[in-house]
C-alpha cells in the first residue's frame, strides 16, 4: 500500500514520554534545588534498595522529598520531606499525600516547624 504524505487523516507518532518516578514538571534549576534533588536521587539509587518498599504514603517519601525540593527549594522542601518521613513511621499517617503546589502565607522560612502541618492540615 502506498503512503500519501499529504493524507490529513494520518497522525504523526507522538513522542514517547520519558517515565520517571520523580517529579517531572517544570521547576527552577537553582544550585540548592539541584543539590537537594541529587541527594534524594542518590539515596534512591543506593540506600533505598536496602530499606525496601515500606513507605505508607503515595507518593513515597523519597518521591515526596524530590518533588518538595524541586517545587519549593532546599530549605522549605527539605523541612517538608523531613516531617513527611517522621509522619511515615509506626503510628503515623498513611494514604495519598501529594506535595502542595502553593504554600500558605503562614508558612514562613524562619518558622520551619510550621511545615509539619503542611499536608496534615488537608486531612
UniProtKB/TrEMBL annotation:
Keywords: Cell membrane, Membrane. Coiled coil: none annotated. It is found in: Cell membrane. It is a peripheral membrane protein. It comes from the Bacteria. SMART domains: Haemolytic (SM01234). NCBIfam families: membrane protein insertion efficiency factor YidD (TIGR00278). Could be involved in insertion of integral membrane proteins into the membrane. HAMAP family: UPF0161_YidD (MF_00386). This is Putative membrane protein insertion efficiency factor. It comes from Phyllobacterium leguminum.
Amino acid at each position: 500500500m502506498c503512503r500519501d504524505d499529504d493524507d490529513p487523516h494520518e497522525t504523526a507518532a507522538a513522542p514517547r514520554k520519558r517515565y520517571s518516578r520523580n517529579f517531572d514538571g517544570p521547576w527552577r534549576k537553582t544550585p540548592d534545588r539541584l543539590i537537594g534533588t541529587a541527594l534524594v536521587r542518590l539515596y534512591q539509587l543506593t540506600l533505598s534498595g536496602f530499606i525496601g518498599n515500606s513507605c505508607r504514603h503515595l507518593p513515597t517519601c523519597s518521591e515526596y522529598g524530590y518533588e518538595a525540593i524541586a517545587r519549593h527549594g532546599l530549605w522549605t522542601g527539605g523541612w517538608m520531606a523531613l516531617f513527611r518521613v517522621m509522619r511515615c513511621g509506626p503510628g503515623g499517617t498513611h494514604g495519598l499525600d501529594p506535595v502542595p503546589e502553593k504554600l500558605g502565607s503562614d508558612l514562613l522560612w524562619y518558622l520551619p516547624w510550621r511545615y509539619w502541618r503542611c499536608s496534615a492540615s488537608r486531612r
